[in-house]
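User: Sequence in, structure out. Go.
Assistant: Echoing your sequence, followed by the C-alpha cells.
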Amino acid sequence: MGTDYTDNYYEIEVPLTITRRGTRDPRQIWPEENEIDIAIQEVVGVKVERDRRSHPMNLPFTQDIAQYKVTVVGRPELSMIQGMMIGIRNPGRTGTASRSVCVWANELRVTGFTESSGWAANAILNAQIADIATISASVRHSTIGFGGLETRLSQRAREAATQFDISANVAVDRLLPEGLNVSVPMYFSIENAFVTPEFDPLNPDVPFELALSTFETQEERDFYRSQVIDRSRRRNIGFTNIRKLKNPENTRNRPYDLSNFAVSYAFGSVNQSNIHTESFVFESYVGNVAYAYSPNPAIVEPFKSWSFLDGKYGKALQDVNFNFSPSSVVARLDVDRRFMRTQFRNDQLTTDGVDPLFQKSFFINRTYGVNWDLTRSLRVDFNSRVMAIVDEPEGDLDTEAARDSVLVNLRNFGRTTNYNHQINANYKVPLNKIPALDWISMDTRYGANFNWQTGAIGQRDTLGNVINNTRDRSVNGKLDFVKLYNKNKKYKALNAPRRPSIPGRGQKSAEDTIGTPFTRRLVRFATMLKDINFRYAIVEGTFLPGYMAETGLLGLDRSFLNPGLGFIIGAQDPGIRNDLATRGLIAPSPELTQAFRQNQAVNIQVNGLLEPLKISALRWKHGNGKRENLARYSEIQWITQESSSASARTGSRLQYFLQHAAHHFRAR
C-alpha cells in the first residue's frame, strides 16, 4: 500500500497455509495463520528504522515483525494512500513444485483508534495603572487531541499550540513634567505563538517525537525541532497625534507655534519560520506630520467710519471689507513603507541555491489646503494632493550604496506619480445691500480641477504623461416677488394676516379698507407670481495625453511656464495642444493612441411658484346624523417646470382647482 506500487510503498508479507481440498472445516477454509493483524505504528516504524540506518530509499528495506515481513521502498505516506494491492508470491525455492491456487480475501478494516485526550487553558489579565496605562495580557495553550465535546475524533487538534500576548495603551505625557503641556498617547503589543505538530511534516505518517529519535545526537534533534516548530512573532508600537497643547491663557496665534503641528508614527513587524520557510519578515512603517493654522481674521473696512454713508443707500459702500488673513492653512505629509522578505528552504532543508523573494513599497503623499474668506461675500478654497513613490533598489538594503539611494530619493520626496488640485471660488452678490434690488439673491461659483498623471515606467520618454482639467461655472439665484410686492404699503396691508375679530365690536381689518372686493381679487390675480428660482451652469473639460514635462509647484514644470497658468486654473483653450507641441512638449510617438478631447455640458433650471387665487375648501363631517360645514381657507399652488410630465401635473392640478372652485361656489 502506498502512493504507487513501484517507488513508494509499504509491503506486508505473510506465509500462506493452503486449504485442504474438500474440507468443510471453517478453521481450515480461513486459517488464522493467513490473517494479517499488525499495528500501523509497527509498519511506520520500519520506515523510521530505515531512515535511522541511512539505508538508500530506492532500495527495499525489510524487517521481521512477528510472523510478518514488512518492507518499505521510497517514502510512502499513509495519509496519502492512493491504492492497495493484494498478491501471491511464489518463493521459488528448490524442491517446491508449482501450484495452481484460488485466492479469497475476506475483509479489510481498521480498528483500535488512538483515543488520547487533550486539554486547553486560557488566562487573561486586565490591569489599570491609575490614569497612566491600561494593560491586557493573555496566555493560551492547547495540547494534541484537544477538541470540543461535539467534535469528531478526526477533527481534534493534531498539534500543540502555545500563544501569549500583551498590549498596552500608555499616556506617556503623564510621566513627563506637567509644564511641557504635551499629549503623547502610545500603544504597543507583543504576540508570540508556537505550534508543534503531532506528526513529522516531512513524514506525515510518522509521529514527530518518533522522527526525532532517528537522529543520533541531541544537537541534531534540537536543530530539527527548531526547524519544524511553527514560530510567529508580532511586534507593534504606535504614537498617535503627538502634539503640544495650546495654552488657553495665550490668545496669540502664531504660524510657528508648536501647537499647530501633530505627529503620528506606527511600526509593525511579523517574523515567522517553519519547516518550509526559513524566515518570513514583514515590516510596516507608517507616519505622518500634520500642520493646521487658523490665524485671527485681519478684516479691513475702509468706509465703515464714513458717517455720510449712514443710511440704507450708502450701506453697500459702507460694508465693503477685505480680509488679509486666510481662514485656515493645512498641510500634511504621509509616509507608508512596507517591506516583505521570504526565504524558502530547499529539499535539504537549507537555503543553498534558493534566492529570497522581496515585496516592497514606499509611498509619500502630501496634502495642502488654504481656505480664505477674502471678503464676507467671497470665499476661495484651494486643495492639492501629491502622490509619490520612493524607488528602492532590488533586494536587501544591506549595502551603503543601496541605503544612500533610498535616502536621496526620500529627500526629494520621491518620484511624483499623481498631482491633483481643486480651486473653488464662491461669491454672494451683495444685492441685499441695495434697497431697490434686495428682493433678488444670487450666488456665483467658479470651480477648477487640474490633474497630472505620470506615464508608465519605460514609456514616459516616448508616450509622455497625461494632464487634464475641468472648469465649472454656475449662477444660482432667486427672485422673491412677494418681497418686491411688499414694497407697496397698500399691497403689504392687503396680504397681512387677518386679526381675530372681537365679538360685538365689528372691527374691520386693514384689508377691508383697501379697495373693493373685486379690486382686491384683481390685485391678487395680477400678483400671482410669487418667486422664481434659477440655476445656470457650464461644465467643461480638457484631456491632453502625451505631455512630456514633469510636475512641480502648483502643477507647473520647473520653468513655471508649462502647461500654463490658464490651464491649471481651468482654461479651455483648444490651441494648447499646438502650443505645447511647438515647444516640443508633446510626445511625437506614433504609438500614442489616446486622443486630445474636450467636452462641455450646459445645465439650465428654472422653477416658479404661482398662486392665482385664495379659495375656501369644503369638508363635510358626518356625525350624529348631522352634516357640519367645516370650510376653511387654503391656497392652491403649483410649480411650472420645463418638462412635459410637469406640464401634465400642472394641468391635472388646474383641473382639480377648477372643480373644487365650482363646487365651492355652488355650496355658497
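User: And one key feature?
Assistant: Residues 9-80 form one domain.
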